[in-house]
Amino acid sequence: MSNPNKQVPIRGLFIDGKEVPASQPELLDVLNPATGEMLAQISHATDADVDKAVKSSAKAFSSSEWSAMSNRTRAKLINKLADVFEANLEEIYTLETANNGRSLNETRAQVSRLPDFFRYNAGLAIARRDSVIPVDGNYLNYTLRTPIGVVGNSTPFNHPLMIMVKSLAPTLASGCTTVVKPSEYTPLTTLRLAELFVEAGLPPGVFNVITGLGPSTGKALAEHPGLAKWVLTGGTEAGRITGALAGSNFAHQTLELGGKTPVLVFDDFNVDQAVNYAAFGAFIGAGQTCICGSRQIVQAKIYDEFVEKLAAKAKSIRIGNPIDPTVQLGPVVSARQQQRVLKYIDIGLNEDKARLVAGGKVPTDASMKDGFFVEPTVFADVTRDMRIFQEEVFGPFVSVTKFTTEEEGLELANDSPFGLAGAIRTNDVTRAHRVAAKLKCGIVWVNDHHRLDPASPWGGIKDSGIGRECGTESFDQHFETKSVMIRLDDAPFDWYKDTASQPRLN
User: Fold this and answer.
1) N or C terminus: fewer CB in 10 A for the chain?
2) Is the predicted pLDDT of residue 1 greater than 50, yes or no?
């Protein structure tokens, strides 16, 4: 429980290179999900605050300090930001773990990779080239790319820095500016990174941070006419709502939305290894990942052994305060999220009538009574018509479904409105390629899970969103492309005198 008598920091908005108060006094509590303790209070930005932040970023985008910066100078600055990030990792690990409840070891493994996103995009800033296009006739045709402008970015609670950095790195390296609205549950590391980057020399206004609730602050940012691009990582419904708002202003969009990742486990693969991957895919981050391996689809020959061993693995996972380096599973982010997971456990038991083989409860240990914990939960004998097979839970929750043939397995895997990621467990190389090509999703892992690289495009299809993060795909989406056509012939031109001899495509 939070202690009302304990002094906690009150955080303002970060606009124009400094922390400023919001235009209204309302504050939102930020809790440690492992203990219920209040970590800080944050400002609830109004429409006027959002407008101030967007205008600050627009001004910075147009300023000579930023817009006239050469690609090589910008790349040097982006590399410096990576170095500053890396120099402060220990502080950031601890703050992120306290704020979102992910175990310290998981946080360290993930966040330590993030400086490389800036270095990769700094390299793209130097390496970028515009095209010279061969066209019919005596013409020179080339393209000019210019940064699109202000990018609005709404980030979720599950990976506060990682998901923000996937957008921030190409935004800055391309010469755009940004206004970020972090989740109201997990804003603290985003605010700290903005401070560090300005101290490192990032011009004021290039990276602004506003805090507040999604239906108010987030809505005001998504629909702001000053945005050139809207980026959201969140639920599918939030994507539909904010995508329509941003679309009314014809803003570019990248939306990474919900997921219900199928994992096809074939009987030629080692069962123990498949179980280890299943636990990793399902329970990392307390299952609060859009690519959570939540649907294990297992071939009949190894199905019973797989279920037995996965249940045992889930029961062996050490749950507790994530700041303890021996803890393997922390809490979900909030009481609301805890109740959501418990609701789906009830659905699995009483509506779907699936077989619960592990977990399904809140831990009874007294040390966890004030946190938002749920045991790692495994349901077996799940069929495609069950809600727990079709609907995203976003917690430490996994279902296991049996299949016989490859065709049946693919049909089950693709039976979903989502299409973010999929995974395959097999030692058959030809099968791996064949099945990967037929999975309807944007990311496929073969004999792995949760693997991400700054150079590898990331995103989904169907209800899992549009656009791509990471790779050259993301970097290129931060530019407008202008085609320049130059006539290289001095021969006289008079369309109305000699029409027949002048073939044209206009």
Assistant:
1) C
2) no
